[in-house]
Amino acid sequence: MNRLLLGLMFLLTATAARAEWTMIGDGDNFILYVDTGTIRRNGDFVKMWSLVDLKTEEVVEGDSHLSRLVQDEYDCKEEMTRILAMSVFSGNMRSGRTVYTKSVIGKWRPVSPGSVGEGSYKIACGK
Questions:
Q1: Rounded alpha-carbon distances, angstroms, from residue 114 to 111, 118, 122
Q2: Which of 23, 34, 39, 84 is the most buried (most CB within 10 A)?
Q3: Number of domains in the chain
Q4: pTM metric for this prediction
């Protein structure tokens, strides 16, 4: 288990270090960036990394953070999305200390029309 977490932390750090972030949305408390260089397609399914940069701190499980690096998977045919992995940082744009890193296979959920997430979906799926 420790090897898996260590490997995931390395992968997240390596991915973030060479990322070229493109801003695709600006919400009330966050700015959303995607890295189109990380798009990986397998049939109707696509994986892509995104970065949620918060304007004010959020606290999860007692730890405050200002950014989240997330790998999402998209089902381009069914217009669904889910989270595969996440790393949370104390500072903006992945700076500061790593608050936590986890590999999570989230539940599939529909892409919400008109949402910032729909923008990510359209980029990942080429729509």
A1: 9, 6, 11
A2: 34
A3: 1
A4: 0.82
